[in-house]
## 1
Amino acid sequence: MKYIRKLYDWMLHWAETPYGPLALFIIAFAESSFFPIPPDALLIALALGAKERSFYFATLSTIGSVVGAALGYAIGYYVWWETAGVEFTPVAHFFFEYIPGFKQALFFDIQELYRQYDFWIVFTAGFTPIPYKVFTIASGAFAVNVAMFLVASTISRGARFFLVAALLWKFGEPIREFIDKYFDWLAIAFTVLLVGGFVLIKFAI
């Protein structure tokens, strides 16, 4: 956890430099495939420093994250399997050993989730605190429809980052503690209600 804390502090220090927006884009990009810390903290720091640019920072986060998601998909599609669906490559084993959140058994659990929920599992991973990078690579590894994957990623990541930006633009510093403590729980609750509503509609029809 010490190195995670150091990475977190390193990420936040960019908010105090002229390169903050570029760093935000790069971190959002990297977090979609391998970087362990979501870009939200840097987004918050930048938006608090320049409220009028909150939605610009959210746009950078969204574009960076979706482009990074495409890279994650490509990693899963092209370099994840030695034998399709059975044997992992050295690249995959590197992720399992060194990148937080990656577990072999989890990949096969995700495969089953894709069979059941398709679009909604990508949306849920993108909007909630579930490790998004695991799902971007798994999407490629299991050859999920790429158009659906990109649409779900754009909607979910955009919704997350623009919601944060909107709260900061409206309320400023007073909302920061609320976001830090409760945003992920609210994201989970919103997603459960949204997905649950569509499941009920499906069964009702």
Note: The longest helix spans residues 176-204.
## 2
Amino acid sequence: MRRILVIGSCGQIGTELVPALREKYGNDNVIATGRRTPPPKILKEGGPFIYLDALEIDALKKVLYEYEIDTIFHMASILSATGEKMPQTAWNININGLINVLETSRSYKIKNVIWPSSIAAFGPTTPRDNTPNTTILEPTTMYGITKVAGELLAEYYYKKYGLDTRSMRLPGIISSETLPGGGTTDYAVEIFYEAIKKKQYTCFLKEDTYLPMMYMPDCNKCMIDLLEADNLKLKRRVYNVTGISFSAGEIAAEIKKHIPEFQIDYEPDFRQEIADSWPKSIDDSLAREEWNWDPSYDLASMTKDMIEKLSKRL
């Protein structure tokens, strides 16, 4: 049985990834951590939770030793929109935290390190339609720069030290449980809350802005499937993955099928330039071939599920 440490558990992905891991590997075998944010009830009461800052390497070493960790999910990160407001902080947390995780993992002979990259690693020079796994990586945001550097570091530690690093380039993540935390794709979550509560939403992207997305249950599945994949079948350390590609107008139209009175306006801000530098759709055929990646949700089923879950809560 694995002993798993999830760094950055209180974020949008970690909050739902931890319960999924605990269901599969056992509550006591998945240690959730947060840097400062008080943990939600599901993390604190569902199993071990501790405070940990990945920038403090001695504290990280202590946790790995005392909890006999053999697998790490390193989720702590400053996202794209927030990263543009404080780029130096984004570099410090995203890169120096990752280096600490990789270096301590090498020293303590950790079996697997799962670290999510992002479609932010791409840039305006990248082919935007059906973006291939191997392509030009010239991002224009600090977040994207840290993801490219992180991909190279993960590859380096695998080739030089044999540390089994695995990474997926996540698209925008849509969750019914946790609000997003400063990303360019946040609108795809906010729109549901506002549609249910106010029947109106002002989108910070243009109506025809297409971006790749993924529903959170598929995101959890993606991470666990890649962790469990046979390393002999993996031909790379970083994989494109995607679930659904849609425009802001298309998701609004899908929501109107369930909430006919819903109205949307479009007032693009600085995040529009970021979105315009990212792919419209992703080629994830290598993930499908090498570790059988297969998402379950399309736009219609995701929208229906989101509205049902949020309506009960809100």
Note: The domain at 174-212+244-277+297-313 is CATH 3.90.25 (UDP-galactose 4-epimerase; domain 1).
## 3
Amino acid sequence: MKLWTGRFSKEIAKETNDFNSSISFDQRMYKEDITGSMAHAKMLAAQGIITDEDKEKILTGLQNILDDIESGKLAIDPNAEDIHTFIEAELTDRIGDAGKKLHTARSRNDQVALDIRLTLKKETDEVSDLLQKLLAVLDKKATENDDTVMPGYTHLQRAQPVVFGNYLRAYAEMFKRDLGRLADAKKRMNFSPLGAGALAGTTYNINREMTAEALGFDGICENTLDAVSDRDFCIELANALSLVMVHLSRFSEEIILWCSWEFKFIELDDAFSTGSSIMPQKKNPDIAELVRGKSGRVFGDLMTLLTVMKGLPLAYNKDMQEDKEAIFDAFDTVKMCLTAFTPMIDTMTVNKENMRNAAAKGFINATDCADYLTKKGLPFRDAYKITGEIVSHCIKTNETLETLPLEQYKQFSDLFDGDVYDAINLETCAKNRIK
């Protein structure tokens, strides 16, 4: 059954129906569609637009449809135009003419806008919960490694000593910002478009505030044209999800480097690694690599939404049907990545000795050596030059700042004394910095 057949004298072509259909991807909104319809029916009865008897028939029928879908008793018809048409047709088949009254004072335009907002609120909460779980794992791992000294990097060159716990907390800060962005986007999305009709509202004496409150919204969309044509919230959420993937991808790159033989800072658990079909020695970080790769998919979803919306006049246009596949894919991809990534981090082994050994090379305590001279009264630029000369000497003699004899230090400056070894100790360097 098509909801718009009265104007047409011909059956729709199969090609048109297949191209126009959205049931394959919008059927996931069945629960939200039914929930919104229940709130709408209650409001219609409260306003005297339908009778209480019809309201009860509608509510009972919708609840039974919901129960049957979730139990598997009722299969969603893949030939239906969309989930809204399917549920309304099923309701009418079950309860008769009362089902035909449900769409009073409502258009598919505000119905779709409502369903996707309800769906994305739920999806946002699910991603936020997964981010919280990742943060809990990062906090645990960071606490376990607050004394694990490692080299910090700039330009992928060893720079200064840090502790691995603080390194992990840097990623935690990124994911905390992601949580904030998702919460902000959800806040701006949390207004009900129901009652906006096709674009210009309705002549019925409806109560939009009643349905908004019943559905957990903070208020109503004030402008009916904007209510049905706004997809800013999809774009904003896709942007927030893209940043989640940027952070996961950066983290994945580090994981891939760290578990290579060249670094060997960590080892991934066998349960979260794969092997090679031809090289028996291989242990591949496939989860991290796939997360890194899937970031491009989510970025593409964001670009899809931006491109779809950039040239649309008010109000609703069929182009906007393209919003769901993109934003649903973005959410599904991020949830899949977080679900695999979090236990991979939780179960990885940290090779503390390898990290410490790497930190001992590369003269990453050179800044601390210069600071030592500065605290003795030497201008920093002079201290910097002297320390650079010491590093150059150590490279030639195969020494490190920690092993260079004191008499050698004194050849560069009389300010050096035995306490220099405390100042350039890697643990001291890492712990004494203001964080």
Note: The radius of gyration is 31 Å.
## 4
Amino acid sequence: MRILITAGPTREYLDDVRYLSNASSGRMGYALAEAAIAQGHEVVLVSGPVELSPPSDCEFIAVETTDEMRDASVAHFPDCDGVIAAAAVCDYKPKERIEGKLAKTGGPISIDMIETDDVLAQLGANKGSRWVVGFALESQNARENALQKLRAKNCNWIVLNNPTAIGSLDNQVELIDDTGHPIMKWAGSKQKIATDLIAWLVANLPDQAQ
């Protein structure tokens, strides 16, 4: 198989030096890329800025903003059999980016925010015969919210985890299908979970998708 994997955070700039982002380390996405390559698959890794080195045997595309991640993912998805969207994409961005550096005013400021484009939803809407695995990080009504995300973004499966995964070497996840029930549960190092997830996909995808 040829698998598109997204990883890491994205950044949305307020001015030329300040940005909105999150604490994603990218470890889960990079572990998935390593596991897929180790099991004999081709990988296209689209990654936001992280302090990790990509696997040497993957096609690597470094991005920074959500728009860049969307463009790279949409461009490479048609040449892949499926996507695992493990990136922690920034959901909002300033309505306008200020040129230069925003100076202190001595008082409060207001910043108008707008939603960024939904990378996973765009991939899901155009998946055709390809498969889509999303990630959902939820803290409340976790399974219900993950199921809503799966359906809204046209995923085949969604991996549910919680905020303790951010920056951690370990993870605890559930793989959820369109019934909303967990069909698999994995815990341990992100490398182990990645290996188990890739092996599960290979065993459960239709023959023509492998």
Note: The domain at 2-101+112-209 is CATH 3.40.50.10300 (Rossmann fold).
